[in-house]
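During the reporting period, our protein records have gained a structure token line. One record among many is quoted in full directly below:
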Amino acid sequence: MKIILLSLLIELILTYNAGSAVSYAKKYCNNYNRSYNSYKGRGGDCANFVCQCLKAGGLDLSGCGYKDDKGMLINCADLRSCLSRKGWKSKTGKPNGFKAGYPFFNGNQHAMIAIGVSGNTITYAGHTTDTCGSTTTNQNYVYYYL
């Protein structure tokens, strides 16, 4: 069992391109990729947007809960569950190894993706309220990392 989990983690690390996720986040943080649905005004678009970023980075979303007709997870709880299933670790407070291209959450209420990390300061992008380049040092968020 440990060998299988280790193999999955190594495969995830080798296939996930955080830089591609960051590029996507920067391109679409203030607008919407028309290839996907927007949930702005319908409960929020944050998980959908972060999911798009992670997919652009190469995250395989197969086997991950309910997805919309475009293949995106649309709520934070499903996205967090998917990340855990795919081998991502989580920690409240920014962990060592957290970097740009990694997602973080304000509980199950709001998803964001880091587009820059410098010390304890994280620059991030998100949707629902379009955010591109805001910063936080909040240690109460739940951070996901490889």
User: Anything to note?
Assistant: Residues 43 and 77 are 14 Å apart (CA to CA).
